Amino acid sequence: MKIRKAIFFAALSVSAACASFAACAEDLLDVVKARGTLMIGMEGTYPPFDYRDSQGKLQGFDVDVAKALATKLGVLPEFYTGE
């Protein structure tokens, strides 16, 4: 009986946590769409995923995925790099 009660409360807790994360995600999406830009942070030092080309522009797989995601959301990508 105690195990059944523990499983029930664990499942209830997980359900509540998932519901709160979903609400936060919707709020964040509204903020991104209202701002019109998707802020993306990366190092720019991990080829082929993200790196700077000879002109200093970010290139790579992660950059392409981020641009595609921003396009899908209908906003502009805004890249930030750590130094």
From TrEMBL:
Against PROSITE patterns, the record matches this protein to: PROKAR_LIPOPROTEIN
What SUPFAM superfamilies does this protein's entry cite?
Periplasmic binding protein-like II
Q: What is this protein called?
A: Extracellular solute-binding protein, family 3
Entry-linked Gene3D superfamilies: Periplasmic binding protein-like II
Enumerate the InterPro entries for this protein: Solute-binding_3/MltF_N
Look up the signal peptide feature and give its range. 1-25
Q: Where is the Solute-binding protein family 3/N-terminal domain?
A: 38-80
Q: Which organism is it from?
A: Trinickia caryophylli
Superkingdom in the source lineage: Bacteria
Keyword annotations of the record: Signal
